[in-house]
Amino acid sequence: MELVSLGISLLALAVAALAALKIRKLEFCPEVLGGDVILPRAGRAAGTARLLLPLHFSNAGHAGGIVEWVALRVTFDADAERSILLSPAAEVDMQRFIQARRRLTDDNCIEPFSGFALDARRSISKFILFDVAERPRAAGLRVQPGRYRFELFVKASNARQPKLERSFEHVLEQKHLEDYRDDLAVYLIDYQITLPGVRRALAESEWLPRASAAQSSAS
């Protein structure tokens, strides 16, 4: 009798799990993949850094929804007291960005950044420029050699609170800093992103320098 009760309980649990999975698939289920970070050419007048992130948004559900906003928290050398919150400053047209020799201009920045719709079973790649939130009250992001942790938060229409979608780390070396100060764009590549579809989608804009795509910095 106990075995029968146990079997019924397991069957009920399996049915409940299957129903929950089915309901989830019918909902708006946004996800985001990323991990690469670009420091665009600073220019002579730039005292603080802005970060350009290639991000791939996908919706695994069968209902559409809105990605309302994203935010990026940057922590230097695991010191939580030195964490800085960055918000989207603009969406960047990567073709024009490359044509401008990887310098941000009025022609390749679409301001201000706003939320966007994501239809069912669809995906989209965006190149988002992040700057320090609440400027000018907050201090700018000043780069220095060390380990940086990046945490990407997303607020979508299917949730009341923002959700931590991705976290990753990069080491900024002295060579990167020298390149940046010499007005070169710096590329920090997360080689753990191995999904072919994502790489193909991001590669369509050819945002990596062809001559040094396997390196972490480029002109």
Structural summary, described in words:
The protein is an alpha+beta fold. The protein has one domain (30-212). It is built from 4 helices and 11 strands, in the order αβββββαβββββαβα. Strands 1, 3, 4, 5, 6, 7, 8, 9 and 10 form a 9-stranded antiparallel sheet that branches. β4 and β5 (84-92) form a beta hairpin. The radius of gyration is 21 Å and the shape is globular. The N and C termini lie far apart (73 Å). Residues 211-219 have low confidence and may be disordered.
List keywords for this structure.
alpha+beta, nine-stranded antiparallel beta sheet, single chain, 11 strands, globular, two-stranded antiparallel ribbon, 35% strand, 219 residues
What coarse outline follows from CA principal-axis ratios? globular
The average pLDDT value, as a whole number, equals 81
Tally of separate domains: 1
Main sheet attributes: strand count, strand direction, barrel closure: 9 strands, antiparallel
The parts where pLDDT drops under 50 for at least 5 residues are 211-219
The helical percent reads 10-25%
**Sequence of secondary-structure elements:** HEEEEEHEEEEEHEH
What is the strand content?
25-35%
Strands, total number: 11
Please give the radius of gyration in angstroms: 21 Å
Termini separation:
73 Å
Structural class: alpha+beta
Count of individual helical segments: 4
